[in-house]
Design goal:
There is one protein chain. This protein has 313 residues and is mainly alpha-helical. The radius of gyration is 24 Å and the shape is flat.
């Protein structure tokens, strides 16, 4: 277990390092950061002072080392828009994105997981076809179109929910549904496939042959084994949630890091852009590392979950 965790941790650190380095290279390939951040009519002496302040007058290797050291400390410089630490702007917006993402994930689990398992249990029947039709519709509809459609229906037509802001729990409903429904569709399809694969295993047929109740077969035998690929799928989907949050937060004026990234790109606030990308990378890598560790604990072939429910691995 310790060896596994150390191996995954080393890969996670390598991934974060590659991402930080890629951001540094991308900024330099895009041109001089001073030319990007400063107006065209900036006087040469002012431009030179800013280059010295940001360390752009140093050799490229020295700039890279300084950039990596600052990133490790969480210091990405000052925001060009409001002259405050860039990472402070990210930490202020991050809780809103975590709230939106966790709400969307919970909604997807409540809808997609039962829908997919129901489709698997009623394989090749009308229920299966209807469930998958709903899942495909939720998966295929674009996020931006769904968000606008919900605003038109519930905010403008029915006037029962707000269309922008984050002042109350009512402001969370529309963006969470917009972000969660496509995820629920993907989860339902994957849950159906994972459950069908498990239901065809010999130990499931043996349990049914011993006269075990169908509900007990699902809970004690099918669900623990199907949970392993589902957990890996959810870990991957965290990246889609963070990526989709930029669109959803912009549509609903939700003050999260997705909207912060869009605003920072439009205002050429590169310090905040770097801080947002670094934060998103750490969250995604950390989430996948946690999923890998939990995978070890619940995989029946490794004995963790099997001992917990009292049956042999």
């Amino acid at each position: 277990m310790l060896r596994f965790v150390l191996l995954r941790l080393s890969r996670a650190l390598l991934t974060v390092t590659i991402c930080v380095s890629a951001v540094f290279v991308a900024l330099r390939l895009a041109g001089d950061p001073a030319d990007i951040m400063l107006p065209v009519d900036t006087p040469p002496d002012v431009r030179a002072s800013y280059r010295e302040l940001w360390g752009l007058d140093q050799p490229l290797a020295a700039q890279y080392l300084r950039y990596v050291a600052s990133a490790v400390r969480g210091d990405f410089g000052l925001s060009f828009a409001d002259d405050r630490p860039a990472f402070a702007a990210v930490t202020e917006a991050l809780p809103k994105t975590l709230l939106l993402g966790s709400s969307a994930l919970m909604l997807a689990l409540l809808i997609g997981l039962p829908l997919g398992m129901l489709a698997a249990l009623r394989h090749n029947r009308t229920t299966d076809r209807l469930a998958m039709a709903v899942a495909v519709f939720g998966y295929a509809i674009p996020v931006f179109f769904l968000g606008i459609l919900l605003i038109l229906l519930f905010a403008l037509k029915l006037r029962v929910l707000p269309s922008a802001g984050s002042e109350s729990v009512w402001h969370l409903i529309l963006p969470a549904v917009t972000l969660g429904l496509p995820l629920a569709g993907r989860l339902a399809r994957f849950a159906r496939t994972a459950t069908l694969e498990v239901l065809g295993k010999p130990y499931i047929r043996a349990a049914r042959g011993r006269g075990v109740m169908p509900l007990a077969v699902i809970i004690r035998h099918a669900l623990p084994n199907a949970a392993v690929p589902l957990l890996m799928f959810i870990g991957i989907e965290i990246g889609h949630i963070l990526a989709g949050s930029a669109v959803v937060e912009t549509i609903f004026a939700w003050p999260g890091i997705g909207r912060l990234l869009v605003d920072s790109v439009s205002t050429r606030d590169l310090a905040v852009v770097q801080a947002v990308i670094f934060t998103v990378t750490v969250i995604m890598v950390g989430a996948n590392l946690l999923v890998d560790i939990v995978h070890i604990l619940i995989d029946p072939r490794l004995g963790g979950f099997s001992r917990a429910i009292g049956r042999p691995a």
